Structures are given as structure tokens and as C-alpha cells.
Amino acid sequence: MAPTSRPLKDRYDVVVIGGGAAGLSAAVTLGRALRSVIVVDDGRPRNAPARGVHGFLTREGMSPRALLDAGRTEAESFGATLVDAGAVAVRHTGEGFTVDLADGRSVSGRRLLVATGLTDGLPAIPGLREQWGAGVVHCPYCHGYEIRGRSIGVLGTGPLSVHQALLFRQWSDDITFFLNDTVLPSDDDWDRLAARSIRVVDGAVVSVDAADGVLTGVTVEGGTVFPLQALAVGTRMEARSTLLEPLGLVAQEHPTGMGHSLAGGPMGSTSVPGLFVAGNVSNLSAQVIVAAAEGTMAGAAINADLVQEDTPGPSRASGGRFHPRRRRRSRSASLAGVATGWMMG
Question: Which of 91, 77, 99 is nearest to 16 (CA)?
Fold first, then answer.
């Protein structure tokens, strides 16, 4: 879908970087709140290789591109401006934020929402990347049902791989766990793998094999071939957040060792006032429906934050008079309470 033809404004209420499920959901929420919002997106959605979206109520199997196209149309219907361009720099100004775009333009906003997602780091095994999103999958809840009952391999990539193998066992009784010279199971791990009748293969996987574009199996060092119909791989997930580092917002190692993500507070707030995050950039394990929900919540929080900023305080509204029953509340508590208290439909 082509970007909007609306001329760009000098300043918006909100600039959203990232036009995936989180960013577009936030744009819809903000548009419905009569806020001026612009969404800038570089056209690199994480789930582009996937054949369909799963676990999203009423949208089962819908192609990722079709979902985004529908989301863009909906966001525009509520007044959002869409720009197909990547963000290359972010600057904190006295009145908000300015975002420099790859096409040489700049956009400014009172608030900034970053929903840039993440990148999946794949093991450097010949043939693996070519099968990514087809024969090679990663999430049991995203793909398990589609490969149920098949011969499934799980590639060892780190400490969570044992857990991944145990999970995929729910969808098939034919699971082979490849240690890949990477995973050293504990005694308890061995007991759990045995209890679930999961085969374990030692040695490095040297290739992911396919015929006519269809996964056929993997080859382990020494030349042994293991036929498979699907291969699960835990990726190294890295938040797309380097442009925020000059503002002091740096991705941190996730406690599980899955990768790096930004620290998001209640409803997407961050340590940088006026800057919010939503989706995979701050929640590595969020599925599409969760990312969309986080975008909606962040949009509500941003609107509440702007309402609070635009509402005159006691000194201006009542000549400094203070109602005796009024109790002061912190900005963060007020923002979260107001934004969530009215969200019922």
C-alpha cells in the first residue's frame, strides 16, 4: 500500500517509529483520541518470511503483509500520517523529539513511541536461513499446531534449547534434539528429556538440507543425515534500538539470555521522559497479538500524558487554591491509572 499523500506537518503530537502491529495499534488509539500522529517505517517487518500470522484472534493464518496493509488503512482512516522511510537519528529537543529520516526529511513530535521490533540472529549453518519461516521455525505457540505430528528437530543454540525441545514434544512424539556442540544438558535435563522420550544427538549440525525448497533434514558432522519435516531454532533476538543510544536508552541483556531488549516500564514508559516503547523492541517474546495490545496501551498512556501536560495546574486554573480533599499523586501513578481506568471496550 502506498504511503499517505498528506503533506507533513511541522510538528505532531506523537511520532511513532515502526509500522508493525505495535506501532499501528498505537496510531489507531492515538488517532481515535484526536491526536495528530505520524508513523515512520522502513518496511522490514520481523515476520515477513512467515506464511501466516497465528494466535491472533480472528486473524488466523492471515499473511503478515495483509495484516499490515489492513492496519495501515485503519490507521489512516483515523487521521494518521504514514511515511515509508527509515529513522536514522533521534534528537531530544526542548519541546519533544525530532526524528531524522533516511530520505533527508525530519519530523518532530511532543512524544515519541518506538516500536521498531527486533532482528533474529540465526546460526551460521548452510541452508538454515533459506528455510527460515518455512521448514525452520522458532516458537511452539506460533508454529507448533501447523507442524503437529511431524518429525521435528530442535537445534541446540543455548541454555533455553532444552526447554524448547520439551515444549515442542507437546505437538509431536517424534522429537530429536541436536546438541550441536553448544548445549551441555544437566543431569536434571537428561532426566526430563528421557521422560519425554526425546532423542538426543551429539555433534555439530553442518547443514540444513532441502529438496525443491522443502526441508528434508539435517546433516551432522561425520556425514550422518537425519530426516526431518521441521526444525526448531532458538534465535538470538536483538532489539532494533541503536538510534536511541544517544538519548541514554541502551538495550540490556535479557535475563533468559535470549538477546538484548529495552527496559520498558508501565504501559511502555521509559527512563527518558516522553519516550515510550512497545512490542518486540522491549518484549522479546511478544507474539503479534501481544505487540498490538502493547501498542494500544502505550497509545493510551501517551494520550493521558499529553492530557496531563495540557491541563492547567491549581496555580493557573484556580488562582492557587487547593481543594482540601484533593490528594496529590505522582505523575507515573496518575498516568497509568488514568490510561487503564477507562479502557473497557
Answer: 99
CA 112 to chain centre: 17
C-alpha closest to that of 70 among 59, 85, 84:
59
Q: What is the pLDDT of residues 17-26, one digit of tens each?
A: 999 999 999 9
Can you give the residue range of the structural domain that contains 148?
123-233
Based on the domain organization, do 146 and 107 belong to the same domain?
no
pLDDT in tens, 235-290: 999 999 999 999 999 999 988 888 999 998 899 999 999 999 999 999 999 999 99
Give domain status of residue 324, yes or no.
Answer: no
Residues 103 and 39 in one domain: yes
The pTM of this model reads 0.88
Q: Which of 293, 296, 248, 309 is nearest to 275 (CA)?
A: 248
Measured CA to CA, the distance from residue 320 to residue 312 in angstroms comes to: 11
Identify whether 74 is part of a domain.
Answer: yes
Write phi, then psi, for 159 (nearest 5 degrees).
Answer: -60, -30
Domain count within the chain = 2
